[in-house]
Structures are given as C-alpha cells and as structure tokens.
Amino acid sequence: MASGHVSMKYGFQGPNHAAVTACATGAHSIGDAVRMIQFGDADVMVAGGTESSIDALSIAGFCRSRALTTKYNSSPQEASRPFDSGRDGFVIGEGCGVLVLEEFNHAKNRGAKVYAEVRGYGMSGDAHHITQPPNDGRGAILAMTHALRQSGLHPSEVDYINAHATSTPLGDVIEANAIKTIFSGHANSSALAFSSTKGAIGHLLGAAGAVEAIFSVLAIRHGIAPLTLNLTKPDPVFADGFMPLTASKEMPIRVAMSNSFGFGGTNASLLFASVGSDR
Predict the structure, then answer these.
(1) Bridge partners, residue 262, by sequence
(2) pTM listed for this prediction
(3) Strands (E), 205-264
(4) CATH 3.30.720.120 applies to domain 2-273
(5) Is beta strand 266-273 parallel, antiparallel or unpaired with respect to 117-125?
(6) Which interval of the chain is the signal sequence (predicted)?
(7) What is the mean pLDDT of residues 195-200?
(8) In terms of C-beta density within 10 A (0-12 exposed, 13-18 middle, 19 or more buried), how is residue 12 classed?
(9) Catalytic residue from among 28, 146, 164, 186
(10) Annotated catalytic residue within 28, 146, 186, 203
(11) Is 164 a known active-site residue?
C-alpha cells in the first residue's frame, strides 16, 4: 500500500512494487528497483524503506524473542554497540530512507547530480532458522559473493563495508567471519574499512537497508568512512588489521558495500561505486 500512495501522490506510473523481507526490505527495494531499470521497465525508480515500530506490540514481540538490549537501560545512549564485547541485543530505531535510481544516460542527459552507481546486488536465503543465522554465515557469504560477481569487481577493490551488525551477540560475529571469508587478506590488511552505523541510529528494521545504503553512497561522495559508535572493546573475533572503525576515517572510497540480513534468513548486499569506477 505504501508504494501505491507514493504513486498516486506523484503520478508515478511505472512499476508499483513493495518488498516485505523484514530487516532486508530497504536493500531489496533498492536492488529490485535497479533490476527493473536494467530490464527496461522504467528509466527512473524511487526506492527505499520506512519503519515506525516503537510501540508496545513490537517491543513486546522483540523482547519475547530476546533480541533487544537490556543491559544499558540506565544509560540508553550506550545501548547500541555493534561488534563490542559488551553488546547484548539491538535497539529499535525508526526512520526512512529513499533513493532516486535512474538509468545512467537518462540521468546524464537531463544534467542530474549523480552520487554513485549501483554495481551489484546479491540475494540469498539461509534456509536455517527464523531468527538465527547459521554459524558458518553461508547466507551472508552468498549475498556478498553474488553482489561482487554481478559487479565484475574483485573483493580487493572494495574500500568500505557498511555492515548489517545489529549489536546482537551471535549475528555480529557471524557477519564478521563472513566478511573475513570473502575478503581474506584484504580484510586483514587494514585497507578494508568497515563499520556498523547502527551504533548511532539503532536498528531501523525495514528501513535499515535503505538508510545504510545512503550512508554508503555518502561515504563514497565525501570520502569518509563512518565510525561504529559505542565500540570501546572490540569482540575477540577481531585482531591485527581486521578491526571495525572506532573513529570516522577520511579516505578515498570508490567502492562500498552495504549488507542487510533479515529475520526469515533473507539476505541482501548492495555494491555501490563512484561514477566511472571501473579500475
């Protein structure tokens, strides 16, 4: 229904489509819209995600699943701490993120300001459990692998990853190991910057993938990889050069990946690049 209201308000008559894939919704919406442009169904798509779940029913449900943090109730500003040894669950956030996606020549001909291009979109299913990812991270690995393969880029060409990491004890470690598996030596060399912006905004659920895609695009645009807020004692899974950012880092970012993994074992990875970044 949300996409229908946007269509009616602005007179959009192209594909009218809504993804419903839990915490991967925003990323799937963007990736699906890109494919509609690639298939010739539209020249321009407006895609993203929105969420408003800070209510009694939603909080009760997530509490029953023991997904939410409780350790930091007396200091809530410290509660969302992805990749930190003291994490104990996520903080529900609310928000919205929307991207205007456009076929490149169409955008160029009208003089549009192009922030980045979508180079890859990978999807996968865990086929494991409704809330817990498999310990081997196979779903996350598949999503990232498919995005890289579609882009034609080598893992060593990725400069920044906006991780899904929600601040849960299990999920953060599994994603970290999946990143190490895919990026191997590049991940351990300190050349690959990665962080979770959920430390600052919480987990926006269905909107997370869209807002974090925007973080990734702006990281490319401004040459700044954002920090992971509240990361004071990194999980033991991190060592040597493989370490999430604890401070924002100014650096050239030509390629950035954004990961979104949802309940139901649904996974999506988006790969963005600066315009003309073929390397």
Answers:
(1) 266
(2) 0.96
(3) 224-225, 249-250, 255-262
(4) no
(5) antiparallel
(6) none
(7) 99
(8) middle
(9) 164
(10) 203
(11) yes
